[in-house]
Amino acid sequence: MEINRVYVVTLWAQDVPAAAHFYSDVLGLTLLPQHGKRPHFQVGETLITILPASKPITQEGQSMRFPAIAFQVPDLDAAVGELQAASVPLPWGVGQDAEGRWVICHDPAGNLIELAEPRR
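RESULT FIELD:
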């Protein structure tokens, strides 16, 4: 078997329109033509799909701050500024190590997401 890329990432949300607004209007992802009540966004060659959830996203394991998805950004400071302008809480601030810098936050559904700027 050969796997050569991630094709689809699925995120779950009780309030799909609120989650879609976050990914399109806050993060700036392009909303693709609708597939019923399942918005799709394209990031490179990967599709991100938001599906309706019947229960809230569990907070179990989130104290470890392990994101459901991480996006690479070219300028983390600009991305943080846009998140702050949209009043997105950044509970852990900006982190960094030898490999780069990142910020982790929740989307409206409670999914942890990360924006990361690798060191060049």
